[in-house]
Design a protein that fits this description.
heterodimer, A: 295 residues, two-stranded antiparallel sheet, B: 373 residues, alpha/beta, Rossmann fold, 2 domains, 7-stranded mixed sheet, 13 helices, globular
Chain lengths: 295, 373
C-alpha cells in the first residue's frame, strides 16, 4: 500500500507540473493550447533517446527542455496571423505531427513500441528509498514551481499577459509587444512541461507514442477547468481531485464488489460528471482566479 | 465556509482513494491473481471477451475445490488502452493486492512497459494477447501462452505462398502490432522468393481508407493481406468492395479481429488465419460452457488464452504448493515442461518462457461465421 501511495503521489506530482505549465499559457495568457502534451512528449522522448545514446540523465532533461522551449517559440510565432481559436487548432495539429513522427521514426524513437527500459533516477539506491527519493524530488519540484508560477502570475509579466488575455488592444496601447508576450508565455509553459515529461519517462521507465495522444492534453485541461484555471491552488486542487478519482475507482470496485467491466465506465462517468457539474455550477472552477482589485 | 466544505469533500475523496484497503472478504480466504485488460477504449470488445474467458476459468477452478484449499480470486483492472493507466493498474496489483502473477494486456505497446515493471518487481507476467517479439526479451518472470508475430508471420507466409500468390500488397495498422506484421511478413515472404509490392501502415480511427486502398491497388497484386481492428476493418472491407478490389483474393491476418464488426455480406467467402482458438474435446466443452454462461459465443480467438492462463496458473500453484511469485514461476516452469493440456492445444514453454509451436488456424468466412478450411 505504501509503495502504491508513493507512486500515486509521484505521478500526481508529475501531472501537477504539466498542469502548471498549461496554466501559464491557458490560465494567465488565455492561450488555447490543445497540443500541450507535445512538450511533455518531447521531454519524455529526449530523456529516452539520451539514455539510449548513453548520455547522463540531466543531459536528456536539459535537451528536452531546450527542444520544447524552441518548439514553444515556433508555436508562439505560428500564431501571429491566427485568431485564438484557429491557433488552438494549429497547436493540436503540431502535437499530432509530433506523434506521427514518434510513431514512424523507428531509428530514433523506437516506433510504435516506444523506448522501454529507461532507468529510474535513483535506481542504485536500496528498495523503498529509490521511490521515496524520486517522490521527494517531484514533490519538491511541484512546490518550487507552484511558488514560482504564483509569483510569475502576480508579477509584472503575469499582469501583462493577463491584460493581453482580457484586453489585447489596451495592452498594445500600453506599449506591450503582444507577439513577444505570447511567445514568452508559450516558451515558459513549454519548459516546465518538458521537465514533467522527463520525470514521467523516468518514473514509467518508458516513453511511447500513446503518451502523445490528444486525450492526454484534455486530461490536463479537465484538471484546470475543474480546479480553477488561472489560479495555482486551483490547478493543484484539480490535479488532486482527478488523480483521486483515477486511483479510487479500482478500489471502489474491489470494495463494493461490482464487475471490472463497469469500473472503467464508472471512472469515465465520474470524471465527466465532475467536469459537467463544475461547468454548470462553478464555471470558473472550484477555486476561481482572484484578480487584484484596484486598491 | 462553502469553499472549506468543498475542500473537505475533495480531501475526503482523495484520502479514501489512497488509503482504503481491498475488501477483506476477498483478501482472507483466497489466493489472488491479477489481470489488466482493455475494458474501455477501442479494444474493449476483445478485452471483455478475454475477461469472460478468464472468469469462466476462475469459476471452474473454484468449482473443483480451488487452489491449495483456498478459493482463487481474480482481480481484473481496466487499462483503458493507455500505458499510464495500465501501469498504475499493474502497480496496484503488485503492491497493494500483492498478487504473485498478472495476466494481460492486449496491445504490445502497453504490454511491454507493463510487463517490464512486473518482471522488475519479481511478479510473474502471463502474456495472452500481445505478439511483439520484444516480449521474448523481457526476462525470467515473463511467460507467453500466445504465439509471437514471428511464428504468426511464418504461418501466414506458408499459407499465402502455398496458394500460389507471389505478389502481395499489405495493409495493417500503424502501431507495434502492424509494424511487426508488415516487416516480418515481407521478410519471410521474400525469403521464399515472393514479393511484397506495396505496404501501407494506416492511421487508426479514420472514416475512410479509400486513399490507402487506391494506393495499394496501383501495385496490381495477386492478393491483398490485411489486418485491422473491428470498426476500421469494417470500413476497409466495405470500401475495398466498392472500389472493385475484390477481383483478387483478400487474406485476413488474425481473422476474428478483422471480421468482428463487418456485415456478413462484405466478407462472405474471405479467407484468413488466426491464433488457434479452442480445439478438440476440451475446446468443445469450453465453448459450450462459455455459451451457457454468457448467452453468447466467442467474440475473438483470444478468450481461450485467458481461460488457459487461469487454469495453468492454478495448476502451477498446486504443483509448487505455495502462492508466492517464486512458487508460481517454479510451478509454471514445471507444468510448462510437461506440456499443459489447454483448450488452445498443448502448452509447453521453451527456455525463455515462450510457447513452443503456438497454434494457428486457417479460416474461411462462410454463411455468417468463421469455419476452418
Amino acid at each position: 500500500m505504501f509503495d502504491f501511495l508513493t507512486y500515486l503521489l509521484t505521478i500526481g506530482g508529475i501531472y501537477a507540473i504539466m498542469a502548471l505549465g498549461l496554466n501559464i499559457q491557458a490560465g494567465y495568457g488565455g492561450l488555447l493550447n490543445f497540443g500541450h502534451i507535445a512538450f511533455a512528449g518531447i521531454g519524455a522522448y529526449a530523456t529516452g533517446i539520451a539514455h539510449a545514446r548513453g548520455w547522463p540523465v540531466p543531459a536528456g532533461m536539459a535537451l528536452g527542455m531546450a527542444l520544447a522551449t524552441a518548439l514553444g517559440w515556433c508555436i508562439g510565432r505560428l500564431g501571429r496571423r491566427l485568431a485564438a481559436d484557429y491557433w488552438g487548432i494549429a497547436t493540436l495539429a503540431v502535437a499530432e505531427i509530433l506523434r506521427t513522427v514518434a510513431l514512424n521514426e523507428d531509428w530514433l524513437t523506437g516506433g510504435a513500441n516506444g523506448i522501454s527500459a529507461i532507468p529510474g533516477l535513483f535506481e542504485n539506491q536500496p528498495r523503498p528509498w529509490n521511490e521515496l527519493l524520486f517522490m521527494a524530488l517531484v514533490l519538491g519540484l511541484v512546490a518550487l514551481l507552484a511558488w514560482l508560477s504564483a509569483r510569475l502570475g502576480d508579477g509584472r509579466f503575469g499582469r501583462a499577459i493577463r491584460l493581453m488575455r482580457e484586453q489585447p488592444q489596451l495592452a498594445a496601447c500600453m506599449g506591450y509587444d503582444l507577439q513577444s508576450l505570447k511567445t514568452r508565455t508559450v516558451m515558459s509553459g513549454a519548459a516546465v512541461t518538458a521537465l514533467a515529461g522527463s520525470l514521467y519517462a523516468l518514473q514509467m521507465n518508458f516513453a511511447g507514442p500513446e503518451f502523445l495522444l490528444a486525450a492526454e492534453t484534455f486530461v490536463l485541461w479537465t484538471m484546470l477547468m475543474v480546479g480553477g484555471i488561472g489560479r495555482t491552488a486551483g490547478v493543484l486542487l484539480g490535479v488532486v481531485l482527478l488523480q483521486a478519482v483515477h486511483a479510487f475507482v479500482p478500489f471502489a470496485k474491489d470494495m463494493l464488489g461490482f464487475d471490472s467491466d463497469r469500473a472503467g465506465a464508472l471512472r469515465l462517468g465520474m470524471i465527466g460528471l465532475i467536469l459537467l457539474a463544475c461547468l454548470l455550477l462553478r464555471r470558473e472552477g472550484l477555486l476561481p482566479e482572484k484578480l487584484r482589485a484596484s486598491a | 465556509m462553502k469553499k472549506r466544505n468543498w475542500l473537505a469533500a475533495c480531501a475526503a475523496v482523495a484520502l479514501q482513494g489512497a488509503l482504503c484497503t481491498p475488501w477483506p472478504a476477498l483478501a482472507q480466504a483466497s489466493i489472488r491473481i491479477g489481470a489488466v485488460l482493455p475494458l474501455t477504449g477501442p479494444s474493449a470488445t476483445i478485452g471483455e471477451d478475454i475477461r469472460r474467458g478468464i472468469m469462466l476459468g476462475v469459476d471452474e477452478v473454484n468449482a473443483n475445490g480451488g487452489v491449495l484449499g483456498k478459493k482463487l480470486a481474480l482481480i481484473v483492472e481496466d487499462s483503458a488502452n493507455n500505458p499510464t493507466t495500465a501501469l498504475t493498474a499493474a502497480r496496484k496489483l503488485a503492491t497493494v493486492d500483492k498478487v504473485p502473477a498478472v495476466i494481460g494486456e492486449y496491445s504490445s505497446s502497453i504490454t511491454l512497459p507493463m510487463a517490464q515493471y512486473l518482471v522488475k518487481e519479481g511478479v510473474a507476467h502471463v502474456n495472452i494477447g500481445s505478439s511483439s517479439t520484444k516480449v521474448r526479451a523481457l526476462g525470467g518472470a515473463a511467460y507467453s501462452l500466445i504465439g509471437l508475430e514471428d511464428a504468426g508471420n511464418r504461418h501466414a507466409v506458408r499459407d499465402t505462398y502455398g496458394m500460389g500468390w507471389r505478389k502481395i500488397a499489405v495493409i495493417v495498422p500503424n502501431n507495434a502490432f502492424g509494424q511487426g506484421v508488415a516487416e516480418g511478413f515481407r521478410h519471410e515472404f521474400e525469403k521464399l522468393g515472393g514479393k511484397v509490392l506495396a505496404q501501407v501502415l494506416y492511421a487508426g480511427g479514420q472514416s475512410s481508407y479509400r486513399r490507402e486502398l487506391q494506393q495499394l491497388a496501383r501495385s496490381k497484386p495477386d492478393a491483398y493481406l490485411y489486418s485491422a481492428y473491428g470498426q476500421e476493418s469494417a470500413v476497409i472491407n466495405r470500401e475495398s468492395k466498392e472500389l472493385g478490389l475484390r477481383q483478387v483474393p483478400w487474406y485476413a491476418y488474425i481473422m476474428s479481429m478483422c471480421v468482428s464488426d463487418t456485415p456478413a455480406e462484405n466478407v462472405e467467402g474471405q479467407i484468413g488465419m488466426d491464433v488457434g482458438a479452442a480445439k478438440g474435446e476440451l475446446g468443445k466443452a469450453y465453448e459450450t460452457a462459455f455459451r451457457a454462461r454468457h448467452k453468447e459465443g466467442f467474440k475473438s480467438a483470444f478468450n481461450g488464452y485467458g481461460y488457459d492462463a487461469v487454469r495453468m496458473l492454478a495448476a502451477a500453484l498446486t504443483q509448487a504448493k505455495g502462492s508466492s511469485s517464486a512458487d508460481v514461476q517454479r510451478g509454471l516452469k514445471e507444468v510448462g515442461a510437461g506440456g499443459f493440456a489447454g483448450v488452445t492445444g498443448t502448452i509447453a514453454f521453451d527456455a525463455e518462457g515462450q510457447r513452443i509451436d503456438p497454434p494457428y488456424d486457417n479460416l474461411r468466412y462462410q454463411g455468417g461465421r468463421l469455419v476452418p478450411r
